[in-house]
């Protein structure tokens, strides 16, 4: 009887392992890419805080003094959804509320959303304060840009 | 490439065929020659010629082999190139598709229409909203209903240069505020000036110089920077566009003026996870353009706690015709985290030759879903005048079917409390309002 139980437990463990393994494999990795000349550095929590402030236009410049130029991605793109969840820590609804408030009070608008990764890469390459979100695989090959923060969509 | 390869191959074959034909001709010719001459010397010569021909054939064979190997090398190179070409083609295809998508998006937005240009601004954003309300007021002596508010407001923001910007909110207002026609202004509600001509009001018009986040200078007409709701101000943002009692009538200066014409120095700074912000202003108010009022606000947000504390103060003169100095002290607390938004403000005033005023409200709101929010507000105001104390309880449900639309249903129970010789009076107000913004 205990052999049957052992077999059952083994099967269960194997299935659990497969499930966890597939979940890990399915987690997409993304990166926030900045201009290659950007010198800002901090730990992950510090980077997230700084990026969030700049993206939400609570701050207008990097600590170096360069004016920040944040870019978003298409609303329903995996990059943007992962960024909202893992870096901004906000729901789409909260983000909309934030921009509505800023728009009405001070005329501020959300960062320009760029659909094409190549066009976004060009913008980052030529503007010192620019930053945007890419899938990690694409982020590693951007000319004139460098990865500031990596995050997973988990 | 295939064409080129085929031609090369055929040339080689032709060459090989010709060489074989020569060899055959020579071999056929040689025995005849032997029979005719029978001469050993001639035989030897023929043999030499045959050897030479065979040598030539061998050389030609070598040449053909060389050509064939060159051909094979070129074929291999071309095979490799063909292997990389599809990637290049695919990448170029992808880029063309991206460009076409971008052009398609731009064309969809612009098409054959004219593109608007700002005269000199480096950036121009235009937005606005329409706010509509219908209200039923049930008073002690009278019941009235009206489509009492239609406001269209145009917002324009332009960037004039690196550090300079301009923001204007121009309102076109058709408004019939709720008033009372009885002596003590508490029993017989009516909607004043309904269907009156549209009133235009430049609600906001400021230019701003920003040295950095910590130092910005606004000059022009700006929202008086006190409290929470007055700063939020716009109906598209507010859960209740009527605002608390101390901010009515609109625009007015029950406690402080909703708007100020003057100079406002403001800024903010992050200190670790916390945020400090300040305002210091000097200016005149509607109804009093000859006295400069001064005031300020300090606010501190505590990191991820969702809490913001504010301190407010102002000093000035309420009237340009009489001596009516006053001072206001106020505090506000905002809690905004998760599904909760809880706003609280309290103000006390000291008035020359009159009793001080007191205003207080607390307004918790809870997001039921992403689209539905419920709120309650307890609102107290004492204007310091006879019969000037009132309490309002408001209960509301708001709905955002889409980002740009805000629909609300609000019930207000307004009680003008009993005062010397004046009995208390209740008004029950039911209001449906919508705000559409772009």
Walk me through what this model shows.
The complex is a heterodimer of chains A (154) and B (438). Chain A is 50% helix and 18% strand. Chain A is globular. The longest helix of chain A is centred in the N-terminal third of the chain and has 25 residues, at 2-26. Chain A has helices at residues 2-26, 44-55, 78-88, 92-106, 117-126, 136-139; strands at residues 29-35, 69-72, 112-113, 130-135, 145-152. Chain A has a five-stranded mixed beta sheet. Chain A has six helices and five strands. Chain A has one domain (28-152): D-Maltodextrin-Binding Protein, domain 2 (3-Layer(aba) Sandwich), CATH 3.40.190.10. By secondary structure, chain A is of the alpha/beta class. Chain B has helices at 2-37, 40-110, 229-232, and strands spanning 123-138, 143-159, 164-175, 178-180, 189-191, 199-212, 215-223, 259-271, 274-285, 288-302, 307-317, 325-337, 340-351, 358-367, 372-382, 389-399, 405-416, 425-437. In chain B, helix 1 (2-37) runs antiparallel to helix 2. Chain B is elongated. Residues 1-9 and 30-35 of chain B have low confidence and may be disordered. In chain B, strand 13 and strand 14 form a beta hairpin. With 438 residues, chain B is of the alpha+beta class. The two termini of chain B are 58 Å apart. The A-B interface holds A 49, 53, 58-61, 67, 91-93, 96, 100-101, 103-109, 115-116, 118-119 and B 95, 98, 101-102, 105, 125, 127, 129, 155-157, 162, 165, 167, 210, 212-213, 223, 231-234, 236-237, 268, 270, 273, 275, 370-371, 403, 437.
């Amino acid at each position: 009887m205990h052999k049957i139980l052992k077999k059952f437990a083994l099967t269960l463990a194997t299935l659990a392992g497969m499930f966890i393994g597939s979940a890990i494999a399915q987690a997409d990795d993304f990166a926030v890419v900045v201009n290659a000349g950007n010198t800002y550095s901090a730990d992950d929590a510090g980077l997230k805080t700084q990026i969030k402030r700049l993206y939400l236009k609570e701050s207008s410049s990097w600590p170096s003094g360069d004016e920040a130029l944040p870019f978003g991605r298409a609303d329903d793109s995996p990059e943007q959804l992962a960024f909202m969840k893992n870096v901004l820590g906000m729901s789409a609804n909260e983000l909309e509320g934030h921009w509505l408030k800023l728009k009405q009070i001070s005329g501020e608008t959300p960062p320009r959303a760029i659909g094409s990764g190549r066009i976004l890469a060009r913008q980052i390459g030529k503007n010192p304060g620019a930053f945007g979100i890419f899938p990690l695989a694409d982020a590693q090959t951007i000319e004139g840009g460098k990865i500031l923060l990596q995050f997973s969509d988990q | 490439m295939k064409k080129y390869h085929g031609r090369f191959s055929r040339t080689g074959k032709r060459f090989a065929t010709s060489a074989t034909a020569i060899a055959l001709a020579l071999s056929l010719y040689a025995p005849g020659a032997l029979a005719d001459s029978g001469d050993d010397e001639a035989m030897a010569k023929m043999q030499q010629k045959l050897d030479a021909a065979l040598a030539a054939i061998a050389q030609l064979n070598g040449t053909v082999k060389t050509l064939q190997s060159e051909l094979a090398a070129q074929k291999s190179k071309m095979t490799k190139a063909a292997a990389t070409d599809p990637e290049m083609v695919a990448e170029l295809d992808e880029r063309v598709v991206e460009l076409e998508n971008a052009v398609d998006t731009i064309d969809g937005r612009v098409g054959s229409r004219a593109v608007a240009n700002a005269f000199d601004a480096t950036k121009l954003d235009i937005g606005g909203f329409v706010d509509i309300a219908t209200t039923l007021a049930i008073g002690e002596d009278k019941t009235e209903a009206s489509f009492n508010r239609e406001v269209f407001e145009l917002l324009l923001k332009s960037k004039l240069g690196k550090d300079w910007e301009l923001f204007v909110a121009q309102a076109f207002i058709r408004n019939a505020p709720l008033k009372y026609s009885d002596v003590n202004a508490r029993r017989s509600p009516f909607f004043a000036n309904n269907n009156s001509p549209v009133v235009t009001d430049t609600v906001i018009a400021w230019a701003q110089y920003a040295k950095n986040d910590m130092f910005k200078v606004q000059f022009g007409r700006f929202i008086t920077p006190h409290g929470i709701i007055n700063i939020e101000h716009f109906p598209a943002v507010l859960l209740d566009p009527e605002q608390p009692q101390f901010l009515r009538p609109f625009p007015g200066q029950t406690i402080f003026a909703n708007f100020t014409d003057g100079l406002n120095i403001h800024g903010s700074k992050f200190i670790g996870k916390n945020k400090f912000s300040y305002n210091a202003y000097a200016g005149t108010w509607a109804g009093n353009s000859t006295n400069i009022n001064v005031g300020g606000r300090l606010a501190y947000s505590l990191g991820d706690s969702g809490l913001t504390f504010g301190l407010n103060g102002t000093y000035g003169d309420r009237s340009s015709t009489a001596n009516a100095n006053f001072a206001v002290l106020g505090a506000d607390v905002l809690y905004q985290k998760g599904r909760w938004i809880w706003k609280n403000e309290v103000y006390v005033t000291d008035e020359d030759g009159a009793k001080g005023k007191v205003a207080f409200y607390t307004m918790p709101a809870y997001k039921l879903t992403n689209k539905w929010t419920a709120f309650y507000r307890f609102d107290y105001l004492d204007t310091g005048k006879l019969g000037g104390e009132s309490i309002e309880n408001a209960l509301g449900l708001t709905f955002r079917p889409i980002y740009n639309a805000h629909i609300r249903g609000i019930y207000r129970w307004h009680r003008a409390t009993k005062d010397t010789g004046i009995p208390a009076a209740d008004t029950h107000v039911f209001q449906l309002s919508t705000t559409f913004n772009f």
